[in-house]
Structures are given as C-alpha cells and as structure tokens.
Amino acid sequence: MNFFYKYKSPFKAVFARKKSTYSLKFKMQYVYPLSTMYAKRMYFIKTTYIYLEKAIRKTLREYYFKKIIIFNNML
Q1: Which residue in 5, 12, 25, 64 has the fewest CB atoms around it within 10 Å?
Q2: CB burial class (10 A; 0-12, 13-18, 19+) of residue 9?
Q3: Are 3 and 31 in contact (CB under 8 A)?
Q4: Tell me: the pLDDT tens digits for 26-52?
Q5: DSSP class of 35
Q6: CA–CA separation, 67 vs 63, rounded Å?
Q7: What are the CA-CA distances from residue 8 to residues 4, 30, 65, 69, 70 (Å)?
Q8: CA 63, 75, 62 angle in degrees (round to 5)?
Q9: Contact 24, 42 (CB under 8 A)
Q10: Spatial separation of the C-alpha atoms in residues 40 and 21, rounded to whole Å
Q11: Is 20 helix (H, G, I), strand (E, B) or coil?
Q12: 25 has pLDDT over 70
C-alpha cells in the first residue's frame, strides 16, 4: 500500500490526519498485524495524546482565567 511508503514510520502515520471514508485504524491493519505490540503502541499513542490535550486545556484555562481577573480589576 502507498500509505506506509508515504509516512515511513508508524508514529507519523498515526498522527497524520487523512481525510478518507475508512478510519486510520483500518489502514494500520494492512501495515501491521493485530498483535500485542500493535495494541501497546495504539494504547501508548492514545494515552499520550489525551495527556497532551488535557495539559494544553489546563494551561489555556489558567491563562484566560488570569486575563478575566485582570480585566475585572480594571473596571
């Protein structure tokens, strides 16, 4: 498949957002057989992505909260 050739590494392939009718998980089955390693890799990527998302949200929330406080003090 052209998919693996394009991204070369599985890590890049997972984070690449491809607009297609079928999901990335379905495509990854062609590159790797569904084994324990595949499951571990997917779990690791999922969890890291979730942690990153939470951290970004938290920092943004704190930032905007501080902005609001400063704005209220000005009034």
Answers
A1: 5
A2: exposed
A3: yes
A4: 555 555 555 566 666 677 777 777 777
A5: -
A6: 6
A7: 6, 14, 42, 48, 48
A8: 10
A9: no
A10: 25
A11: coil
A12: no
